[in-house]
Amino acid sequence: MHINExxxxxxxxxxxxxxxxxxxxKNNVYFCKGKKIRIYIECAKCGQFVSRYTLSGxxxxxxxxxxxxxxxxxxxNSGKRTLEMVEGFGDDVRGExxxxxxxxxxxxxxxxxxxxxxxxxxxRTD
Length: 126
Prior knowledge:
Elements: E1 25-30, E2 38-43, E3 49-54, H1 63-70, H2 79-107, H3 113-122
Antiparallel strand pairs: 1-2, 2-3
């Protein structure tokens, strides 16, 4: 997990519907061979389009399948090593998820998602 120690360096927020303000959403996943996966977020209450995300990677609650997807081209030496990697991968993702939920509970960002992304792009040093 990459947690920057600078104050204000990390942020978390529930995504709100621009129409009704609800946080309940549906993820509409679009697959097209040769293109990155796109997720179209729809408000579960009013049906309004909320946002679209383009994925460069995917992780689910099934760490074994997720890590195999990421490591298709890597040959692993042993079953034990594979199991250790899968367990570590699952723990890392679970820890990141819990950290984000805690940020939302304790200090949810009041900026809109677009503003958070814009601030991040403006402040990048890489």
